[in-house]
Amino acid sequence: MTGNKTALVLGATGLVGQALVQQLLTDARYSAVICLVRRPVAANLFDDPDRKLQPMVIDYDQLQDYQGYFNVNHVYCCLGTTLKQAGSRAAFRKVDFEYVHVAAQLSRAQRCDGFVWISSVGANANSKQFYLRVKGELENAIMRMPQLTHASAVRPSLLLGSRASSRPLEEFGQKLAPLLRRVLVGSLSKYRPVYAREVAAKMISLQLF
């Protein structure tokens, strides 16, 4: 039996986004899973037996114009890039800070029940590392946003899974992952490499209301 909640996913075609959407499509709470994407989604990308998936092609640079899509129960934001892919610090910040921040603002405007996004282990607005500083600044901006109920960030370490694009550091981490997952325990457990499906499951667990 399918529930009556609706979910909105941003970044549905990324590593975590794909795992998340697939889990949402089998979650009995949801009757619809809306995905805001830059380009049409391949028909075979997801297994959707109940036909819940509703992909919508949008221009992320004009995200504020799509406020109506945020009239859902739960918003999941999996947007993110790398400095190499973005090409510049400004382009990186546009994706990892501006887009996510606008999504949080639209979620608040539509009074969504919950907003969950992907941050990073070590996120700190005072960090000397640009990547971690941007992630920390975003956490501060969203968590201080008034009237945004149930906003939560997940802070994964190195992400594991099969990517379309090559990331040498992550490929190296994939090889070391079994060892690192055994030795990083206790206070160091937050630095363990984590599979995309695990991050997705954590995001969904934060929307249990």
Automatic annotation (TrEMBL):
Name where it mostly resides.
membrane
Please provide one cellular component term from the Gene Ontology annotations of this protein: membrane
Q: Which UniProt keywords apply?
A: Membrane
Does Ion transport count among this protein's keywords?
no
Q: Where in the cell is it found?
A: Membrane
- Name one matching Pfam family: Epimerase
Q: Which residues form the NAD-dependent epimerase/dehydratase domain?
A: 7-123
Query: By its UniProt entry, which InterPro entries does this protein fall under?
Result: Epimerase_deHydtase, NAD(P)-bd_dom_sf
Q: Which top-rank group of organisms is this from?
A: Bacteria
Q: What is this protein called?
A: NAD-dependent epimerase/dehydratase family protein
Which species is the source of this protein? Salinimonas sediminis
The record lists the lineage as: Bacteria, Pseudomonadati, Pseudomonadota, Gammaproteobacteria, Alteromonadales
